[in-house]
Amino acid sequence: MDKMSLDEGEDDDDAGDGEDDTPIFTAELAKMKAQALGQEFTETEDADEDMGDEEEIDTRENNKNRDKYADEFSDSEEEKEDYTIRRTDSIIVTATAENDHSNLEVYIYEHEKSNLYVHHELILGAYPLCLEWLPSWQGTKANLMVVGTFLPEIEIWNLDTEDCDPVAILGSLDLSEQAKSTSVAKKYKKQNPELTSFSEQTHTDAVMSLSLNPYQMEYLASGSADKTVRIWDIDELAVKATYASLHSDKVQAVRWNRLNEQILLTGGYDGKLNVVDVRDSDSALTY
Question: Quick one: 135 and 269 in the same domain?
């Protein structure tokens, strides 16, 4: 009997130990455990209070950690003022190249303070050769920059955003590569025997010069190292005319006449200067 009592006592101790060691996560679990042991369950607010204390501590820690990082709208008033472009400001755009990196840098000049600074930059994919500002596009007022580079494509960039891609591209690198692998059409070879490659839809070499028609701003003239001059419709993103016989070498300059919308001036590495009526390129005056 004594041994039986001792064993029962040991069992009671084990049960008690189990009760103390068993983790209790919620009041419901504690109530179920008490019922299983035949004990009376009394609810307490200690667990809830402890949990509330822990949540309050976590909240304070999160607020501390959040203070370590700059908030999206935490710019100082001075920084916001510098980033805002006003009607009285002048915008200057430059093309820069350093090692393998080429950029468009958008400068702001504040007349009142005589202050000049870089507002933002746009990363270009190739070395820039020429720029032309485009104030309207597809019937809408805009702030765009047309860029000619060592690639046969002409890129149009939106200066009011910091997007990583141009909003439109004139010409095609793929079509240019295809043209280089095929023979020049006979009619263009006859016009200019110096042509080594030609495509109806795109330049096939670097774009060296650009000029926007001051009377009809949807028309852009371009001169290229492929020895051709082209007239583009920017709204349609398509070539409207190609002049392959004006120069026998790279076309370094194109410029529309400010008094006559039909007259275009071209200059090339061949030493020739052409005054062209784009309605009839065969009547060009060559100097």
Answer: yes
Please give the angle made by the CA atoms of 223, 229 and 235, to the nearest 5 degrees.
Answer: 90
Q: Is the dihedral of CA 190, 192, 193, 195 positive or negative?
A: negative
Cα(121)–Cα(164) distance, integer angstroms: 10
Question: Which of 206, 282, 286 is CA-nearest to residue 250?
Answer: 206
Running along the chain, 287 residues long, what does each successive block of 10 average in pLDDT?
Answer: 44 47 59 73 54 56 54 56 74 90 91 88 93 92 93 93 89 82 66 73 94 95 95 94 93 96 96 94 86
- Report whether 104 contacts 148 (CB < 8 A): no
Region class of 227: left (phi > 0), else alpha (psi between -120 and 50), else beta: left
Four-residue CA torsion sign, 266, 267, 270, 275 = positive
Amino acid identity, position 227: K
Number of domains in the chain: 2
197 and 281 belong to one structural domain? yes
d(CA 187, CA 206): 23
In terms of residue numbers, what domain contains 56? 15-67
> What Å distances lie between residue 153 and 36, 87, 129, CA to CA?
81, 33, 12
Exposed / middle / buried, residue 204 (Cβ in 10 Å: 0-12, 13-18, 19+): buried
Task: Look at the pTM and tell me if it is higher than 0.90.
Answer: no
User: How confident is the model at residue 219, as a pLDDT?
Assistant: 96
